[in-house]
Specification:
The chain has helices spanning 7-27, 43-59, 74-86, 105-109, 123-131, 140-151, 171-180, 195-200, 245-248, 262-283; strands at 3-4, 33-39, 62-68, 92-95, 160-164, 184-188, 204-207, 225-228, 232-233, 239-240, 254-255. The strands form three sheets. A six-stranded parallel beta sheet has the order 1-11-8-7-5-6. The longest helix is centred in the last third of the chain and has 22 residues, at 262-283. α2 (43-59) crosses α10 (262-283) and α6 (140-151) crosses α10. It folds into two domains: 28-114, 3-Layer(aba) Sandwich (Rossmann fold), CATH 3.40.50.10860; 140-263, Rossmann fold (3-Layer(aba) Sandwich). The protein is α/β, with parallel strands linked by helices. The mean pLDDT is 96.
Amino acid sequence: MARQLLGKEVNASLNEKIKQEVTALQEKGIFPKLAIVRVGEKESDISYEKGATKRCETLGVVCEKYVLPEDVAEEELLKVIDALNEDVSVHGVLLFRPLPKHLNEDRIINALDPQKDVDGITDGSLAGVFAGKELGFAPCTAQACMEILDHYGMDCTGKKAVVIGRSLVVGRPAAMMLMHKNATVTICHTRTTDMEKIVREADIVVVAAGKPGVVGATYFTSGQTVLDVGIHVNAEGKLCGDVNYDETEGVVEAITPVPGGVGAVTTSVLVSHVVEAAKRQNKK
């Protein structure tokens, strides 16, 4: 059986560090604050919002919510973002996506100040990830993968890493972050030929395919570390990932479960980004 890379263990370590940093900031009169901007009543957004709010409360970070109707006018939403950009008491902003189709998502996203973009959605943040500079923040899910590797002492230097998926939310940022850790990285996607062979040659595999159970045992071999980013509800009503866990855990050396793996770390990463944003903004 594979070693389970549990998110709760990563969270325990990460949260302890966050608490110490929050205390240090509060002693200087700085109170890290997250603003959550949600348009509409999408169930998945509300669920993540509850988790983020609870994590903020637990770790001493202030959290304010801005809930706008589904049919909000674009200019109205931009006014909210502009106000948050200008509010020095707000250090981080989480804007839920996708936005309703009548809104120009690219325009709205890039109206957000990258310094406050704690979920890595702006072009500025992504440029920072690709350049390895502190221009903004990495997407929380991609960062959660790196936190798991770090916590379990997995040195990426010289290792072959494969990322399945090329989205700007996880795939490409995760690939760049692995490269910054000195891994040799290959990105696979829907047009990749002989993907199974490519994946079997890797030491580390990040699966962000976006389809439940699409990657199974035939993709893997012994000694590999697998990070499953996906989260879905299967036909039986149970949560599952992009990896067929039952098939794969008997083959690889280490794997993140779903639930309880990468997803469990993302809200802690979000809060850590708010705290880091507060430190950067007050350093200036």
